[in-house]
Specification:
Layout lengths: L1 H6 L4 H7 L4 H14 L13 H14 L3 H8 L4 H14 L14 H12 L5 H10 L1
């Protein structure tokens, strides 16, 4: 449908109605295609580095682009992602942009912590006092 709009003679409104999508959404699709080509529509889960997030936020500040436009330029699936980065940065600085690891701790790590709490490593003082008692 984006190609029909780009290379055909139908209006954005006509095509968006035909594919049953709001015109503003269709407009985002057109911008994505203009900036990224067909690869913009191939989605995969992406983890963004702190540097990349800062580059995106700096781009917005320098160029004055909207979140939607910036998402299209950098091929970020949702403009809301950028808005969240902006809020985190304003509240906690660059450290708030660091990606947190998801998932559960491994059982080995947890059992080592528990084991060391239950069986403390003896210090020189405790060894000396035990030997004095014997």
């Amino acid at each position: 449908s984006v190609l029909r709009y780009k290379y055909g003679n139908e209006s954005m409104g006509e095509i968006s109605k035909g594919v049953n999508v709001h015109e503003s959404i269709f407009s985002v699709w057109v911008r994505l295609y203009e900036h990224q080509g067909e690869s913009a529509f191939i989605k995969s889960y992406t983890t963004y580095s702190t540097k990349f997030k800062m580059d995106v936020l700096n781009y917005i500040n320098e160029m004055g682009t909207s979140y939607r436009e910036t998402a299209a330029i950098f091929n970020i699936s949702s403009h809301e992602t950028i808005r969240k980065w902006q809020l985190r940065f304003e509240q906690g600085g660059i450290d708030a942009l660091e990606t947190k690891k998801k998932g559960h701790l491994s059982m080995k790590t947890e059992s080592k912590k528990t084991e060391s709490k239950n069986n403390p490593v003896p210090t020189e003082e405790s060894v000396d006092s035990l030997q004095a008692k014997v």
